[in-house]
Design brief:
- The protein is mainly β.
- 0% of the residues lie in helices and 50% in strands.
- It is globular, with a radius of gyration of 16 Å.
- The chain is built from no helices and twelve strands.
- Strands 1, 2, 3, 4, 5, 6, 7, 8, 9, 10, 11 and 12 form a twelve-stranded parallel β-sheet that branches.
């Protein structure tokens, strides 16, 4: 990840642990996972700066909170629980979009998203990002706080029965369009 200093990567998978609070204290400047997965139910999952190439965090009836860093793909899914996260999504392969998927239901989704690039502008290839956020019966609040120049963002934000507030970074000169389908 370009915004973090290089370090060895580690693979890790955690099987479902049931109704226990998960607190992830893997500080990104010291530890980056190749692939990591957390699963739980009836409890929150909280992260203090988790970093991975690919990460999946899933729970139900509990919140997902904290700071998450990923370079290829990050998936955060819960139901009946709030999502309140700070995301750092890095793109080190301009020909392949880095992906972020966040979903909850019956609870607010609040995400501050920072997009980073390791190889911006290499041979006319610019970083690409795919971001999909979804909630229902509550508000959707997404703020793209940082983005590399000349990057491409494919963003889909979806909510029902709640307000939405989506803010694009100034690197994207076009106005956000809302589609009612």
């Amino acid at each position: 990840m370009s915004h973090l200093r290089p370090r060895p990567n580690i693979g890790f998978s955690l099987c479902p642990l049931g109704p226990f609070l998960h607190r992830i204290h893997a500080i990104a400047e010291h530890l980056v996972f190749d692939n990591i997965s957390f699963a739980g139910s009836n409890a929150h999952i909280s992260s203090v700066d988790l970093a991975a190439d690919v990460a999946s965090v899933q729970t139900s009836n509990g919140a997902i909170l904290g700071t998450f860093n990923a370079s290829k793909e990050l998936k955060l899914v819960t139901s009946n629980g709030q999502v309140k996260v700070d995301i750092h999504l890095d793109n080190d392969l301009p020909s392949t979009p880095s992906k972020l998927y966040i979903e909850t239901s019956s609870a607010p989704l609040e995400a501050n998203i920072n997009l980073h690039a390791s190889a911006s502008g290499v041979k006319s290839q610019y970083p690409q990002y795919g971001v999909d956020t979804k909630t229902s019966n509550s508000k959707l609040d997404v703020d793209f706080q940082n983005s590399p120049a000349d990057s491409t963002l494919y963003y889909k934000g979806d909510t029902s029965n709640g307000p939405t507030n989506d803010q694009l970074h100034a690197a994207y000169p076009r106005k956000l369009q809302s589609l009612d389908i």
